[in-house]
Amino acid sequence: MNATIIEKVIETNGPFRIKTVAGDVYEVPHRDFVAFTAKKTTLVVNFECKEKEEIAWIPLLTITSVEAANTQAVAG
Fold first, then answer.
1. The pTM is what?
2. CA 38 and chain centroid, separation
3. Full DSSP string of 65-76
4. What is the pLDDT along the chain (76 residues), one digit of tens a residue?
5. Which domains does the chain possess?
6. Which site in 3, 26, 54, 73 is 20 to 30 Å from 32, CA atoms measured?
């Protein structure tokens, strides 16, 4: 996945969903829950799982789509 595509979705400041090649799905409520690493090769997502705060490090190469709220998936 291209970082520019993800940045455009983040700029909307709305909720979106990230899907990976492994079938993992990450729900991002808004931009405060996501960040890029310095070289923009990995996306860092903060999420809650079983009432615990978790962090996922997702290499951009493994992201298959980003779905903004009420829109179609954007494939990379």
1. 0.83
2. 16
3. EEEETTS-EEE-
4. 899 999 999 998 899 999 999 999 999 999 999 999 999 999 999 988 889 999 999 999 999 999 987 655 555 5
5. 3-71 (2.30.30.100)
6. 73
